[in-house]
Design brief:
The chain is an all-beta fold and 257 residues long. It is built from no helices and 14 strands. The protein has one domain. Helices cover 0% and strands 56% of the residues.
Amino acid sequence: MIKIILSLLSATLLFGEFEVNGHLDLDSQTYLSAPSAKHQNNYTLKQTLKFKYEDDDYSAFASLYAQEDYYDTKGTNSKNRRSFARLDELYLKMDFEDDSVEAGKVIKFWGALEFRNIVDVFNSKEFRDDLFSKINKLGVWNGAYSHYTDSGEISVIVKLYEQDQKMAAYPYVYYIFPTQVSYDNDLESSNGELRPSLYLKYSGSTDSEYPLDFAFIYENGYDSQRYFTPVVTQPSSYVQNAYLVNKFMTYNTLVLG
């Protein structure tokens, strides 16, 4: 695959405690090898707009994202169904002397690798974009309380519900099913999509000759790693399943020299 991202516009504006920034990009992908029934290339216009407000111990943040696929302007059989707009983040945070409280829709990044982190399970991926992208994720509604110590941070996070993951149409190269198989957007879950998920996280660093950054996470609830099963009444249609887990995770970074 050959990928080219062309930044068409980028700007940041400041209005006292308000900060607004955004960018407009053209994402072009050409695939050296792709099935004959799929598009050999893709052209996607992407827009991101972010709003930030800070005033003493209070802060608010909002992020909007939209993308338009070139093939969605063509005939029905060529459509990728990748054009959409979504609200990524919208949250309020209050900071105290050693504590903070956060509530709203957020995206979190957990892990230490540049590419894919198996512990990055808080947010689900966007199936209508490059599946190898680590930044295009779906925001989730949550509430979080954090306590800060001299060397680390202890957090209690509650994710309020699980959301569906829409998928692009078959002509898009990252559609994961064969042509005769359809995908049902409705999420199946073992205990209802409104069943909250609880995360306990402790992260910190050591003050030594070889500094160690570490994080430990315990999760009880729905994992963002899901699986697909055929619909009972329609074997040629698949649905996504979210399952309950009790999971312990950790990621660490050790600096030598």
